[in-house]
Design brief:
alpha+beta; outer membrane lipoprotein receptor (LolB), chain A; 2 helices; 12 strands; about 20% helix; globular
Length: about 220
């Protein structure tokens, strides 16, 4: 029996689409479970980060060091191009720029900040509960060859259209790209991740320097 070349190509295309669909259905839950398992065994995490913001005609890149500790504690030490601090003990978040005369304080339960969900990464990770429509993102090139990129819509964060999550083969999250409803994009890259280091609780505490005014910041301010 002679087959028309066009039909053969269509057949192969249909087979590839079917196999891709099956792969997506089976690999996303498995990959999410691997990420959950990786972070749920951690007590602490230290990493170098780069934060890249683009929006409203602005492009900004900052970098520093991030520390996470169970339960719900985090410290972002921005070092370049300007020093600033974003820290939480799990109950209260502080934002302070050295040299300024004000420090902002917000209860974590009222905080709407792109960085805040990372505070609960250790010990409570469940990607498929945090994101709707979690799927592979083959159209999004990975930062590192061999990584997998997932796309999802966060269930508990307003003002965000979608998040891209880049996952290394060992289950580590190495990059997050947050697409805001206002058209902005905020990208976080994580390097030199060190796990289960001894990190003192005082790393996640903040006392305003003498003379610095404390501003109680509510949601939306």
């Amino acid at each position: 029996m002679n087959l028309h070349p066009g039909r053969v190509l269509l057949g192969w295309a249909a087979l590839l689409l079917l196999s891709s669909a099956i792969f997506a259905q089976t690999s996303v839950p498995k990959l999410a479970e691997e990420v959950d398992a990786h972070y749920n065994r951690l007590r602490t995490l230290q990493a170098n980060f780069t934060e890249i913001y683009r929006g409203a005609g602005i492009s900004r890149e900052e970098s520093g060091t991030l520390w996470l500790k169970r339960p719900g504690r985090m410290r972002w030490n921005y070092q370049k191009p300007r020093e600033k601090l974003f820290v939480s003990d799990g109950k209260t978040a502080w934002f302070y720029v050295p040299g300024e005369q004000q420090a902002r304080r917000t209860p974590m339960k009222k905080l709407e900040d792109l960085r805040s969900p990372l505070a609960y990464l250790l010990g409570k990770t469940k990607l498929r509960k945090e994101f709707e429509a979690l799927s592979l993102a083959p159209d999004a090139p990975p930062w590192h060859p061999g990584d997998t990129v997932l796309r999802g819509v966060p269930k508990f964060m307003e003002g965000v259209n979608q998040v891209l999550i880049e996952i290394a083969p060992e289950g580590k999250i190495v990059r997050l790209v947050v697409d805001g409803a206002d058209g902005s994009t905020t990208e976080y890259r994580f390097e030199d991740q060190q796990e289960n280091l001894e990190i003192a609780d005082r790393q996640f505490q903040f006392t305003p320097p003498p003379g610095v005014q404390v501003i109680e910041q509510e949601v939306g301010q």
